[in-house]
Each structure stands twice: as structure tokens, then as C-alpha cells.
Design goal:
This protein has one domain. Helices cover 71% and strands 0% of the residues. The chain contains eight helices and no strands. The radius of gyration is 16 Å and the shape is elongated. 14% of the residues are buried.
């Protein structure tokens, strides 16, 4: 195994609850073995990127109700191609060459899975997206 591949795989968090079986589709297997660990590894960076996204968009996010904040996150991930491509790059950049070759075989479906996981992560950390001055007071 080359050193890049070994190093990339060694820094990924493990999911003890992840079950891999023969009945899984190739996409589901890729999601559980590659996407989830990388996205978990990149969690803090993805949160920082979304905080920056909020700031760059005049902080309208802070004036929204919780339900509308959730919709805002979903819309940002689904519709803002610049944000979406930036986040995809942060994840794809941590693929091994072998994983990349698998990814390009079905990138459209895997991108959808990837962005759904990112969206769920951001939604589950929504409490971190408060006004910076409110977080400093805690």
C-alpha cells in the first residue's frame, strides 16, 4: 500500500456500528466505508465553512426561526453550487486513488449520498450556528 493511501485511511475515524454485508449495494458500501468516515473527519471544517457561508450571506440565517434555519441549510446544500462543490472537494480530496476510481463510476448517486450526509451533519449541529457573540458568552 502506498504511503498516501495508508496515511489517508489511518486518519479516518472508525464506525463501530457500521455493518457491512453482502446484500449492500456498491454505493451503500462506499457510503459506509468511505464517505461517512471522511465526512466525520471533516466535521469541524464543514461547520466552519457553513459559518463562513452564513456570514458571507449577510447573516440572515440568525433572524430565522429554527424550522426556517433547517430549510436554509437544506437549500444551501442543495442549490448553492459554489458551496456544494467546495464541500465535495473537501471530501473527495481525502479519497485514495482507488476510491476515486470507484467514485467516478457513479459520481452522481454518490454525490447525492455525500451531500445528504453533510446536510444531516449540519442539521444535527444546528446549535453551533448561533451568532458568534452569543457563542462567546457561553
Amino acid at each position: 500500500m502506498d504511503s498516501r493511501q495508508f496515511n489517508l485511511k489511518s486518519i479516518r475515524p472508525e464506525f463501530l456500528s457500521t455493518t457491512i454485508n453482502d446484500n449492500m449495494s456498491t454505493d451503500e458500501r462506499f457510503q459506509n466505508l468511505v464517505l461517512r468516515p471522511i465526512i466525520k473527519l471533516q466535521n469541524d471544517l464543514l461547520i466552519a465553512v457553513f459559518r463562513n457561508y452564513i456570514a458571507k450571506h449577510k447573516s440572515v440565517f440568525y433572524d430565522l426561526s429554527l424550522e426556517k434555519r433547517m430549510v436554509y441549510i437544506e437549500n444551501a446544500i442543495q442549490k448553492d453550487m459554489k458551496l456544494r462543490n467546495s464541500m465535495k472537494g473537501m471530501i473527495i480530496g481525502l479519497f485514495t486513488v482507488e476510491e476515486y476510481l470507484i467514485y467516478i463510476e457513479n459520481s452522481s448517486a454518490l454525490n447525492k449520498r455525500m451531500m445528504n450526509i453533510v446536510k444531516e451533519r449540519l442539521l444535527s449541529h444546528i446549535q453551533l450556528f448561533e451568532k458568534p457573540e452569543l457563542l462567546a458568552a457561553v
